[in-house]
């Protein structure tokens, strides 16, 4: 990882800009909500990839006119990122598989099924965790937690 000091708000705003053409096409609302100052030590490009993977999933699996919220804050030296959608959700019996390489709930949907497995690896490389809560027919929220120092301590130990 190329850890460097970064303003996480910039990473969010860059990712949002890249994903907006997709959400606009489906007339989805994309909201952001974050603390005024989020200083972290992360690999900027990798974290941008994480956000783009999750935001593009949120758009892809949410019907037209739905809503997507990306929220971020720091609590006790941990950076939290939540990406929430009002989409189709993930069936309960499929939930344990979604981080598996090539897995797709419905394999007629365009994609390779690699996004979430890469996302999980990148979060773990930062010493973090990713989890989700999903209600079929209502929506899904992915929650990432990473140390604000990007897991620097893990690397030294
Ligand atoms: P790729 O990301 O490689 O283009 P993909 O989006 O299908 O393909 P993943 O991002 O790994 O693959 O997601 C795996 C599966 O998990 C998806 O195919 C979908 O069934 C389910 N999934 C992921 N995110 C969501 C979401 N926000 N809402 C509903 N289902 C989701
Ligand atoms: Mg994907």
- Uncertain runs are none
The neighbouring-strand order within the major sheet is 2-4-5-7-6
Distance between the termini: 16 Å
Q: Give the topology string: H per helix, E per strand.
A: EHEEHEEHEEH
Fraction of residues in β-strands: 25-35%
* Average of per-residue pLDDT values: 94
Give the class from helix and strand content and strand pairing. alpha+beta
Ligand roster: adenosine-5'-triphosphate, magnesium ion
Main β-sheet description: 5 strands, mixed
Radius of gyration: 15 Å
Alpha plus pi helix count: 4
Instruction: Identify the overall geometry.
Output: globular
Percent helix among the residues?
25-40%
Number of extended strands: 7
Organism: Effusibacillus dendaii
Domain Histidine kinase: 1-150
Protein name: histidine kinase
Give an overview in words.
Keywords: ATP-binding, Coiled coil, Kinase, Nucleotide-binding, Phosphoprotein, Transferase, Two-component regulatory system. One of its GO terms (molecular function) is phosphorelay sensor kinase activity. This is histidine kinase. Residues 1-150 form the Histidine kinase domain. This protein is an alpha+beta fold. 32% of the residues lie in helices and 30% in strands. It is built from four helices and seven strands. The chain has helices at 8-25, 44-60, 115-125, 152-156; strands at 4-7, 29-34, 39-42, 67-75, 78-85, 129-135, 139-147. It has a five-stranded mixed sheet, covered by helices on one side. Strands 1-3 form a two-stranded antiparallel ribbon. β4 and β5 (78-85) form a beta hairpin. The two termini are 16 Å apart. 30% of the residues are buried. The protein binds adenosine-5'-triphosphate and magnesium ion.
């Amino acid at each position: 990882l190329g850890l460097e000091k970064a303003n996480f708000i910039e990473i969010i705003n860059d990712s949002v800009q890249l994903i907006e053409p997709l959400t606009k096409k489906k007339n989805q609302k994309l909201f952001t909500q974050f603390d005024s100052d989020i200083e972290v030590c992360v690999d900027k490009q990798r974290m941008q990839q994480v956000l783009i993977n999750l935001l593009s999933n949120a758009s892809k699996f949410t019907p037209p006119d739905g809503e997507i919220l990306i929220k971020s804050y720091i609590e006790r030296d941990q950076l939290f990122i939540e990406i929430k959608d009002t989409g189709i959700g993930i069936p309960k019996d499929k939930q344990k598989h979604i981080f598996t390489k090539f897995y797709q709930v419905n394999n007629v949907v365009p994609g390779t099924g690699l996004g979430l497995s890469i996302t999980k690896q990148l979060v773990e490389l930062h010493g973090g965790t990713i989890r989700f809560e999903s209600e079929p027919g209502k929506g899904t929220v992915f929650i990432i937690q990473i140390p604000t120092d990007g897991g620097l301590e893990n690397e030294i130990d």
